[in-house]
Amino acid sequence: MTVTTKGGGRQAASFLHRHPKLRLAGLLSAPVLWLVVAYLGALAVLLISAFWSVNTFTGDLVKVFTVENFRTLFTEQVYRNVALRSVGVAAAVTAICVVLAVPMAFFMAKVASPKYRHWLVIAILTPLWASYLVKAYAWRVLLANGGPVDWLLGGPGNGPGYGLFAVILVLSYLWLPYMILPIYAGLERLPDSMLEASADLGARAGRTFRAIVLPILVPSIFAGSIFTFSLSLGDFITVQIVGGKTQLIGNVVYANIGAANNLPFAAALATVPVAIMVVYLIAVRRSGALEEL
Amino acid sequence: MSTPAIKLTELRKSFGAVEAVAGIDLEIADGEFFSMLGPSGSGKTTVLRMIAGFELPTGGTVELSGRDVTRLAPFERDVNTVFQDYALFPHMSVVENVEYGLKVRRVPRRERRERARSALSSVRLEGFESRKPSEMSGGQRQRVALARALVNRPKVLLLDEPLGALDLKLREQMQVELKQIQRDVGITFVFVTHDQDEALTMSDRVAVFDAGRIAQVGTPEAVYEQPATSFVAGFVGTSNLLIGSVAEALLGKKGTFSVRPEKISFAEAGIPGTVAEVIYAGPVTRYVVDLDAGARLTVVEQNQRTGTAALAELRGKPVHLTWLEEHVIEIPSSKENADAL
């Protein structure tokens, strides 16, 4: 019984009970501080610095407002190509993940016996526990000239090697769990009776899948795509490791921070994926995908 | 009699070590309103699911109008199901839900629309065509599910506790409507329920399920007035069993007997006992009476006495009970009955 535990803690608790606003402040002040200072603050700095420039002789920051960076971004063909290529890679990765994730999630949620379901979820999650770098380098070994993939395909040079295709392949591998999990969750909520009703009304499995399962899954698929799309769009490590000469937004930003020492231009470049993601989120919001996250 | 709409022979189903359906033989006539009544876990829903094709039997056969469909998929059978949770497709409007079966069977668009509309009007849902299921009440969804099944004009309609999720008033209203719809369309209805009132009210015949077997099949009257086992007597209504020495003392006969509570009345003279409990239940009042001879009986009386206070005073008072001899039901003794006691 709580009656027996008298003292300061109990008095503080009952004081807080009488002052709900104080209670709310205690709960939220730390996270709000974090959100405003560290998270939104960093974004604000990014946006502001995108409008600065660098003195080409001294390499010093010039904190004077200019739209020069964005002008370069929009007028130079090379940056448009990089942006389009990045979106293409993100879209391809997302499409591959959907094609692989839907049957896997369907098996997990509707075919496998409930006893094994948890083990399958764990099996999907375990790759996420391994370091991203280790996995990317593992693929570098696999795809190396004369490596295992070449050997499987019949000899050196037969595999895809490093390049755009390798980037799409490795990113699809890395982000697949983020697509499987929301689809799995969506399927688990889909009652079996819905599938039975469709069969009962004369539909074969293929029809049931196209007419019932897929439309109901659309929000879950979009939810997964938010992860795969944004993670692919911002990636710069995989591109460096298996991309060969491929240039995506991520590694162009990285090059501008490091080698080119042009932080303002890197910031301007970095607003591109942010803008694309905002557009994407607004587009998928209507499907109800954001409720699935 | 013509070929039965449904014929089950030696039907069995096991889930692992559990035998859910333990050998069922049953014939359901064309156009019949047939109920499968039993407690949860008695196998009635499993039988329904085997008729629909959602479960494959472990043994035995299912025939629909003389055709063996035991191994056929649900979409190859001329039956439709109304599910307990209705299973309406959430992304489709009401009319799209109702049309689905026709669309799958490639019925032309015009005819589809027409039939869907008339099915919706037969369940009194005109004007709801473009609504989404999520915008409708439980009773309305129930009707959509019914229309979606009926529009295909199946030979047999299977209903899996379709009224279970509705409140009492709506349920009673739907019982009457379902019966009317069944008479109008003339389709065989197989209705699964655990509610004895529902089964007795609506059915032409009732099968009472007990532990994976059928304990009795008959008209509602037969099941209620002449229960075949003490399980049936207890599940369909309140049983009031008189057994062994009590039966001998009161009736002068050995065996198991039952007297329905509404067939017993209070009298000046008769079988002596004491009122143990008085339960006020609106239109009727239930009395629990301990007989001096040893049994405990429930007596139901129309509520014609005044006030709960007056009723409470009856508690602990000595009373006398009478009943007509023809209202004493002899329950055939069997091994099963002996186990149940």
TrEMBL record, chain A:
Keywords: Cell membrane, Membrane, Transmembrane, Transmembrane helix, Transport. PROSITE patterns: ABC_TM1. Residues 83-284 form the ABC transmembrane type-1 domain. Its main location: membrane. The chain crosses the membrane at residues 24-52, 82-107, 119-142, 162-187, 208-229, 263-283. InterPro entries: MetI-like (IPR000515), MetI-like_sf (IPR035906). It is a multi-pass membrane protein. It is found in: Cell membrane. It comes from the Bacteria. Belongs to the binding-protein-dependent transport system permease family. CysTW subfamily. This is ABC transporter permease. It comes from Paractinoplanes globisporus.
UniProtKB/TrEMBL annotation, chain B:
Residues 6-236 form the ABC transporter domain. Gene3D superfamilies: P-loop containing nucleotide triphosphate hydrolases. It comes from the Bacteria. GO terms for molecular function: ATP binding. Keywords: ATP-binding, Nucleotide-binding, Transport. This is ABC transporter ATP-binding protein. It comes from Paractinoplanes globisporus. The lineage of its organism: Bacteria, Bacillati, Actinomycetota, Actinomycetes, Micromonosporales.
